[in-house]
Structure formats: structure tokens, C-alpha cells
Write a structure and sequence with these properties.
single chain, 415 residues, Rossmann fold
């Protein structure tokens, strides 16, 4: 993942360099962007079952030329320094693409949270917050939930941080519960933002498209629900257990209601015209829009030649490998990149931060209205560069994000 992120930056820099007269200064900026500004790491310990348990923890702050560092904290057994560094780098690009005033960061703890008790999870959250407390703050670094973390864990961390500094500071963390200053609309923000981008991409001819969505977790669930409500025709969805396909369209409302009961799609009663399919089969359906919204590396060398969709709309992080991405571009298949299409979450996190700083809270309607304006403009900017430069959407997104970061660095005199 790290090599892929760095390769994207290097590749885009060759296109971007011609826009800058001072080549030496430009190359210094690229070198700086390839390296995070600060790596915070250490061992954190808790007491569980009468024994001391120690875990490796990270917080990597990539670049803050455009504003405070921003990025989630994940608790997962596969967390490693390179992964956190890659994700911090991609967060810088994502914030710049969305044109929100943040830099990128990411945090993680090497732990399987399913093996911890509730008290141990709370104590781990407190220990992590103590480790990073000297390096975060509303105008310095603003963490948020990520894999296996949530609003409750942010609440533990916020309390720990506020005790450390001696005053209230709700804007230091986003993704909080509403009761502690969280924003309305945050839960569904990633899916909602994705639907707004898709609507802009299709120029509102949504009912003419057929859509298959791989993944029915938070992102895929809300993407399907909201897209259906806006008039999009969804013909397939899947979770980790199975997929369901109906070429005439699925009853998404019924599937959402079923999913709300906690059931797996493999056990969902089928309606007339529907059938079970595998996740692999879903990726190869003859649809207009394919939405990988589950795991990374879903579209690879092994299946790229079987893709029949006209457009890949990335709602997961990194679902298309670089080799598959290049092949699809040559075949004339648009790939709407993840740093744009799933940036709704960080955009509404930005709105939460702004609300906290002002002590004034928005209605859900205002949140969604501002999200639509922000993310639609981001798509319009990228679409314009794509057409002007005759490049892919991914390269256009990287072009804009890198240029915004480099310009900010140069204005500050960092290079």
C-alpha cells in the first residue's frame, strides 16, 4: 500500500512538473511530500486479567501545509508502520481533493480488539490518547474513528485529552456521539457523498444506470439506500456471506430493513427474479456502474479482463490495483477514484470540527446541503482537469491534490 501511494505521487509529479518554472523548488516539494513530517510511535500498556498487556502504537502526521493534520485511528492486529504511513499520505491527498483545510494523518494500534474486554478496550483507548496527547489538538491534529474504533472510543480519548490539558476541547476529535458534539449526518456521510459524486458524474440521468454494489457494511449500506431513494436502479448487492442479483432491479428498501435485523444476505429470502451470486460474480456483472465498497484489491490482474461495467466507482479504499487501473483506462472504462468518491466522511468530519470551534450546531439538512456543494465542486474541478489534460480521473484527482499541497508549501516558504 505504501509503495502504491508513493508511486501515485511520483507518477503524477512528472505531469505536474511542467506547470512550475522553478524545477528545483518543485522537486524539493515532491521529496517532502514523499516523507511524513512526524512519526510518533511507542509501546502502550494496560492491565487485563491481572496481567500487563503491551501493544505497539502509531500516529503518523504526513503534511500540514494546508491545515491541521486529520485522520482516523484504527485498532487491528495487522496494523504496521508502513500501512499507517500510506494511509496518512492518502489522507493528505483526499483532504486536498475535497479542498477542505486539512493535512493528512493516521493512527493505529497493533491489537485484535475482539480479544479485549470492554474495560480493556477503554483502557487501551485511554493509553493511546495519553501517548498522542502532546501532538494533537484542534489546530494541530484532529483524530477520528477508523477500523474497529467508533464514537465511544473517541469519547474515551476526548475525556483523556481534556483531563491532560485542563479544559474542554471537543474540536480535537471528530466522529463523536451527538451528545458530545458530533455532527448530524456523519454516520451516512461517506455513502451520501458518494451518491452526490455519482449523480454529478451521470449528470442526473441516474435512472438510466444499472448499479452493482460489492459490500453492504456502513459505506455500501448507505450508498445503496440513498442511491435507491434518489432514483438509481440497483441490480446487485453483496456482503461477506453472499450477493443477490436481479437484472430488473432490487427492492433496496426491503434489503435495508432485512440488514437492520442483523441478518446475512445468504439467508435473505429471495423475491421473484432474484438469485444468489458470489462476490466474484458480482464484479463481473453487465452493469453500467460497478461500486466496490468492501475491501482493497477487489479488481486485479486476475479479473480485470472480465469487468463489463462502463464505470468503476470506488467507495472502498484502494479496491483497484495499479495494473488493473491502467488496463481499464486503456479499455475506456472510467474509474472514479476513492480519494474523491469516499471523501464524504472526512468532509462531514470537517463540518463537525467547524461546528465545535463555533459552538453552533447545524441541522442535518444543512450538513447534507454543504456536503453536496463541497463534493460536487470537487468532482467538477477534477472533471475539468481530466478533459483539459486528457488523463484519467485518478490522475486528475492526484494532479489537483498534489498541486494544492505544493502551492501551500511554496506559499509558506517551506521549499
Amino acid at each position: 500500500m505504501l509503495q502504491a501511494a508513493l508511486s501515485q505521487i511520483k507518477e503524477t509529479s512528472t505531469l505536474l512538473e511542467r506547470d512550475y518554472l522553478d524545477k528545483k523548488r518543485f522537486k524539493k516539494a515532491i521529496e517532502a511530500i514523499l516523507t511524513p513530517q512526524k512519526i510518533i510511535k511507542g509501546k502502550i500498556s494496560i492491565i487485563g486479567g491481572g496481567k500487563k498487556k503491551t501493544f505497539q502504537a502509531f500516529r503518523i502526521q504526513h503534511n500540514d501545509a494546508r491545515g491541521p493534520f486529520k485522520g482516523g485511528i484504527r485498532f487491528h492486529q495487522d496494523v504496521c508502520e508502513d500501512e499507517v504511513r500510506a494511509l496518512a499520505t492518502l489522507m493528505s491527498l483526499k483532504c486536498a481533493v475535497a479542498d477542505i483545510p486539512y493535512g493528512g494523518a493516521k493512527g493505529g494500534v497493533v491489537v485484535d480488539p475482539t480479544k479485549l474486554t470492554k474495560d480493556e478496550l477503554k483502557n487501551l483507548s485511554i493509553a493511546y490518547a495519553k501517548l498522542v496527547a502532546p501532538f494533537i489538538g484542534p489546530w494541530r491534529d484532529v483524530p477520528a474513528p477508523d477500523v474497529n474504533t467508533d464514537g465511544q472510543i473517541m469519547s474515551f480519548m476526548l475525556e483523556t485529552y481534556e483531563k491532560k490539558i485542563g479544559n474542554q476541547s471537543p474540536a480535537t476529535f471528530t466522529g463523536k456521539p451527538i451528545e458530545l458534539g458530533g455532527s448530524l449526518g456523519r454516520t451516512e456521510a461517506t455513502g451520501q457523498g458518494g451518491v452526490y459524486v455519482l449523480d454529478a458524474y451521470l449528470k442526473r440521468n441516474s435512472k438510466l444506470a444499472t448499479i452493482a454494489i460489492q459490500g453492504f457494511g456502513n459505506v455500501g449500506y448507505y450508498f445503496a439506500k440513498l442511491a435507491s431513494e434518489m432514483g438509481f436502479k440497483i441490480v446487485a448487492v453483496s456482503d461477506s456471506s453472499s450477493g443477490i442479483y436481479n437484472p430488473k432491479g432490487l427492492d433496496i428498501k426491503a434489503l435495508v430493513e432485512y440488514k437492520d435485523t442483523g441478518g446475512a444476505l445468504k439467508d435473505c429470502p429471495l423475491k421473484s427474479g432474484s438469485k444468489y451470486i458470489t462476490n466474484a460474480e458480482l464484479l463481473e456483472l453487465p452493469v453500467t456502474i460497478l461500486v466496490p465498497a468492501a475491501l482493497e484489491n477487489a479488481i486485479t490482474k486476475s479479473n480485470m479482463k472480465n469487468i463489463k461495467a462502463r464505470t468503476i466507482f470506488e467507495m472502498a479504499n484502494g479496491p483497484t490495483t495499479s495494473e488493473a487501473d491502467a488496463y481499464l483506462y486503456k479499455k475506456g472504462i472510467d474509474v472514479i477514484p476513492d480519494i474523491l468518491s469516499n471523501s464524504g466522511g472526512v468532509t462531514v468530519s470537517y463540518f463537525e470540527w467547524a461546528q465545535n470551534l463555533n459552538g453552533y450546531y447545524w441541522t442535518k439538512e444543512k450538513v447534507n446541503d454543504e456536503l453536496k456543494k463541497t463534493i460536487t465542486k470537487a468532482f467538477t474541478d477534477i472533471d475539468k482537469i481530466k478533459k483539459e489534460k486528457k488523463i484519467s480521473y485518478r490522475r486528475a484527482a492526484n494532479y489537483i491534490s498534489l498541486k494544492r499541497i505544493i502551492d501551500a508549501m511554496m506559499l509558506r516558504g517551506r521549499v
